[in-house]
Amino acid sequence: MPFTFHSHSGQFCRHAKGSLEAVVTGAIARKMLVLGLSEHVPRSRAQDLYPEESDMAADDLHAAFDAYVAEAQRLRAKYGQQIEILIGAETEYITPESLAEAKQLRAKHGLDYLVGSLHHVDEIPMDFSPELYEQIVQRCGGDRREAYRRYFESQLAMLRELQPEVVGHFDLIRIFHPTAAGTEDPLQAAEIRELALRNIDYAISYGAIFEINSRAWKKGLPDAYPQRDLLAEILGRGGRVTVSDDSHGAQDLCMHYDRLHAYLRDMGIADLYYLRRVRGGGVEACVLENAVEHEFWTANGFAR
Questions:
Q1: Distance of CA 73 to the CA centre of its chain
Q2: What CATH number should be reported for the domain holding residue 108?
Q3: Domain-embedded: residue 223
Q4: Residue 202 CA: distances (Å) to CA of 31, 96, 235, 237, 285
Q5: CA gyration radius for the chain?
Q6: Contacts of residue 97, Cβ cutoff 8 Å, sequence gap at least 6
Q7: Is residue 70, in this structure, part of any structural domain at all?
Q8: 104-140: pLDDT as tens digits
Q9: What is d(CA 297, CA 272) in angstroms, rounded to the nearest whole number?
Q10: Alpha-carbon gap, residue 5 to 12, rounded angstroms
Q11: Which among 5, 105, 142, 269 would be 20 to 30 A from 240, CA to CA?
Q12: Residue 119, Cα to own-chain centre: how many angstroms?
């Protein structure tokens, strides 16, 4: 789509590639209209650093985030006539202090928006590797339903405290869940599904936009996040949706957008929402009607 609100660069994220400027110029080359920059908020504890950050300290992440905002502002000044750039961040929720830190960071830098995401359950990253995912399950006594329950409870706490404009990869907890025949899908259990629906209803109540995140296909899932059972619930409840590639460098821009275009059609989605800055500060949500027919899809070879 001619916008994405979830992006990263190797300049400020160790598991991404390339410069932030390359992401911006790549989006311009794709003829995007709005680009949301959303590097991760810094983690403040040494034990929360990822293996690729072994040569860093938590303070280094905070310095890197400051540098990210400064570079994003420079790029907005340089390329603002070619593409609208929003400067935001993707949240973390590892401990309750993570939420307070995110609010402070937003106020400090005057961020345009937040992508509200969870990457941890019980302080263990769920999306880094299958092995760490299984550690979460073991922490829950081997009960996969309990792992899902803790995920959705933490997600609600994040939504309530931060009220992010964009809800990121809503059902990321599915990323490494076993898919072998006969394996239970915890979201088919009534008590877990009700937690997910409760979170959907809360996000809708304050005006959030749910991203349809194409990176799920890179992880081997059958659909984008959210998977079609929950996406149908979001749509049926009147939720607003946007699209994101969750790019980790310019090479990922519009990744799997051909499949994304087909997914939008399969789900009966015509209109998409996007954010834009408003005079005096802040952002507003706007609708792009009949977005599935926008020339962006054919110009980039995504329409089938």
A1: 21
A2: 3.20.20.140
A3: yes
A4: 34, 19, 14, 11, 17
A5: 18
A6: 44
A7: no
A8: 999 999 999 999 999 999 999 999 999 999 999 999 9
A9: 14
A10: 16
A11: 105
A12: 10
* CA angle centred on 236, ends 231 and 237, rounded to 5°: 100
Q: Would 282 be classed as within a structural domain?
A: yes
Structure-token pair, residue 220? 């081997």
In this structure, is residue 178 part of a structural domain?
yes
The string of pLDDT tens digits covering residues 21-79 is 999 999 999 999 999 999 999 998 989 988 888 888 888 999 999 999 999 999 999 99
Domain count, the chain: 1
Give the global pTM.
Answer: 0.96
Structure tokens given for 207: 């005006």
**Residue 245: burial class (beta carbons within 10 Å; 0-12, 13-18, 19+):** buried
| Helix pair 20-29, 58-79: axis angle to 10 deg | 40
Task: Map residue 86 onto helix, strand or coil.
Answer: strand
Quick one: CA torsion of 191, 215, 256, 78, rounded to 10 degrees? 130
Structure tokens at 150: 């803790």
How many CB atoms sit inside 10 A of residue 112's CB?
A: 25
Give the separation between CA 56 and CA 31, rounded to whole angstroms. 36
Q: Are 303 and 291 in contact (CB under 8 A)?
A: no
